[in-house]
Write a structure and sequence with these properties.
The protein has 619 residues and is α+β, with helices and mostly antiparallel strands. It has 3 domains: 105 residues, Beta-Lactamase; 182 residues, Beta-Lactamase (2-Layer Sandwich), CATH 3.30.450.40; 232 residues, Phosphatase 2c, domain 1, CATH 3.60.40.10. Helix content is 29%, strand content 28%. It is built from 13 helices and 24 strands. Strands 11-10-9-14-13-12 form a 6-stranded antiparallel beta sheet. Strand 6 and strand 7 form a beta hairpin. The protein is elongated and about 140 Å long. The protein starts with 5 loop residues before the first helix and ends in an 8-residue tail after the last strand. InterPro entries: Bact_Sigma-Reg, GAF, GAF-like_dom_sf, PAS-like_dom_sf, PAS_4, PPM-type-like_dom_sf, PPM-type_phosphatase-like_dom.
Length: 619
């Protein structure tokens, strides 16, 4: 190297840089060289060179305590210098270790990718900016994230001397936390179409990552009971305005909350809560004003809670969806001494917007489900009688699964000659249309029953009737034919002969419980469901001893996701083997055992009939 090389250093009076020299032992060392131009008496140009054999001696006083991690690697990509911040990262990111190379492997860390990035920087001199490196903890629960920038160190002669890295641990950065929270919100908020659950998901998600205390209060239009608040009294300073749907706090006892979930929330007309509800704009109060002369003067209970719990910063955000304001979400800080900032307000509004859409979907679903259930209840029988031939009991359970209000039905039809018809059916599809179809089919079956036809003929006529009704509903053919059908089991019991005739249209087999407790299933040759126009049904007759029991049911009782229906039938036969129980008690036992407190995936209809011990004389 020639210090006086003007191509390399021009006419500058002073220069410095890093160079690689060969140690007398044969290895390469990194030197810091500083040159100062001198003028001799003979006016010859000379240089005074200062060589520091350890770059750390020069860099450490300046960079060792920098808040960012800084490291230097030589041309062999061996780490030759680290500042204090970088050394603290060595346990997590192993390439920050003196003497090591970036290829060093560690669980949960992609060492090869990091080494490749450093080699490319050394080869072509193009810096790599803000490269993200991740290290997952051994238990898989913690992610460490490092944002690193690499650039090449060149000597005074332009030759590469190594690679320098600047790194920042962004595992807990504010921006990353915000993105992570919003990503989590898209998964956790709205996991069910339930208004109360959705509101609680928002509250729990925001505590403590955004606020110390959060409430979600919805207007009366959001909940099914649309008139409850109108019956409550209001005063000049306190109006029933919301239902508390969600609440969460860093304190388990919820000392900040005047109302629990499900209770009606009262607010002063002049409060920021009503202002947000009426204007649709957020209320942002980084430092709460609790002085005299504010709206808190007419709300002493809230003022007391604010004082006792140390509330000092407040955000109230409207829950807006499709042009409608569904309620408000309130974010409060108590133990966290930092006041809310504008970025906190923006984050709260984003969370509230996502929750509002889920709440609106839940509201619409709740309304439709409530209407379907009401229609279903109106169309199902309330009082059934076995007309002296049988003792009957029944149960109906709507599904707990979203969107599955179905068209299950049951009926007992006295036929006037001492016989009795037993019917259980299940309309395909769900919702209000399925419930309405169920009502039409139940009426049709009753009408056909009164004609005294055998079961196979009843189902054949019902099949053709459903097709005809669908054709009439289709009108002139502008819309496709609705092929909604139903499965059905139809049985007629004659107490004089003690014989039961039955036919099945794609339905689970009836269960017969003999007086001894033995349970069998009447496997009747099953035809297709009614409504397909393919009906060809067979009729089977069996004799029932005195005190025998017949159980008709829909598939929701015996079918479970991922389980074979034979397993469900076996469980049913086991619980039915209790001949001493009255039909009412047996119904309770069957439902309790088969459902066992778990959410029902489909509607369940159950009809149990026990033959009487003395047959009436037929006139």
């Amino acid at each position: 190297m020639e210090p006086g090389d003007r191509t390399a250093r021009g006419r500058e009076p002073r220069w410095s840089g890093l160079v690689t020299a060969r140690h007398r032992a044969g290895g390469a060392i990194l030197l810091h060289v500083e040159g100062v131009r001198l003028r001799t008496a003979e006016r010859r140009e000379s240089w005074l060179l200062t060589l520091t054999p350890d770059g750390q001696q020069v860099l450490e006083p300046i960079l060792s305590r920098a808040p960012v991690a800084i490291g230097v690697w030589d041309t062999g990509l061996r780490c030759v210098w680290l500042n204090e911040t970088a050394r603290r990262l060595s346990d997590v990111f192993p390439f920050f270790r003196l003497g090591s190379r970036p290829e060093v492997r560690a669980a949960g860390f992609d060492a090869e990718a990091t080494a490749g990035a450093m080699r490319r920087v050394l080869e072509d001199g193009t810096p790599v900016l803000d490269r993200e490196s991740r290290r997952t903890s051994e238990n898989g629960l913690t992610d460490h994230v490092l944002s690193t920038s690499f650039y090449r160190l060149d000597g005074a002669d332009g030759r590469p001397l190594g690679v320098c890295a600047f790194a920042v641990d962004t595992s807990h950065s504010r921006a990353r936390d915000r993105l992570a929270l919003l990503g989590e919100a898209s998964i956790r908020i709205g996991s069910t179409l339930d208004v109360m659950r959705t509101a609680q998901e928002l509250a729990e998600l925001a505590v403590p990552r955004l606020a110390d205390y959060v409430t979600v209060d919805v207007s009366e239009r959001v909940l099914p009971d649309d008139g409850s608040m109108r019956r409550l009294g209001a005063t000049e300073v306190s109006v029933p305005k919301f239902h508390r749907a969600g609440v969460a706090s860093i304190h388990r006892e919820l000392p900040e909350s005047l109302w629990r979930r499900g209770e009606v929330v009262y607010v002063p007309p002049s409060s920021p809560f009503t202002a947000v509800l009426s204007t649709g704009r957020s209320h942002f109060e980084p430092v709460m004003d609790t002085s005299s002369g504010t709206w808190l003067d007419v709300d002493p209970d809230r003022a007391r809670v604010i004082h006792d719990t140390g509330m000092h910063s407040l955000i109230i955000v409207p829950l807006k969806a499709r042009g409608d304001i569904l309620g408000v979400a309130v974010f409060v800080r108590t133990d966290n001494s930092s006041p809310f900032g504008k970025d906190d307000l923006e984050l709260a509004e984003m969370l509230a917007a996502r929750a509002a859409l889920s709440l609106d979907n839940a509201r619409q679903y709740t309304r439709e489900r409530t209407a379907a259930l009401a229609l279903q209840r109106d169309l199902l029988p309330r009082n059934l009688s076995g007309a002296g031939a049988v003792d009957v009991a029944w149960r109906y359970l709507p599904s707990d699964v979203i969107g599955t209000v179905g068209g299950d039905w049951f009926d007992v039809v006295p036929l006037g000659d001492g016989r009795v018809a037993l019917v259980v059916g299940d309309v395909t599809g769900h919702g209000i249309n399925a419930a309405a179809t169920m009502g039409r089919l139940r009426t049709a079956v009753r009408t056909l029953s009164y004609q005294g036809l055998p079961p196979d003929e009843v189902l054949a006529l019902l099949d053709r009737m459903v097709v005809r009704l669908a054709e009439e509903d289709a009108g002139a053919g502008d819309e496709p034919l609705d092929t909604t059908g139903a499965t059905c089991v139809y049985a007629v019991y004659d107490p004089l002969t003690r014989r039961c005739a039955m036919s099945v249209a794609g339905h689970p087999p009836p269960a017969i419980v003999h007086p001894s407790g033995e349970v069998t299933f009447a496997y009747v040759p099953g035809g297709t469901p009614v409504g397909l126009g393919l009906g060809s049904y067979e009729c089977v007759e069996i004799e029932l001893a005195e005190g025998s029991l017949i159980a008709l049911y829909t598939d929701g009782l015996v079918e479970r996701r991922g389980a074979d229906i034979d397993a469900g039938l076996h469980r049913l036969s086991t619980v039915l083997a209790a001949p001493g129980l009255a039909p009412e008690d047996l119904c309770d036992q069957v439902i309790g055992t088969m459902v066992d407190g778990t959410p029902s995936e489909d509607d369940i209809a159950l009809l149990i009939a026990r033959t009487r011990t003395a047959a009436p004389a037929r006139s």
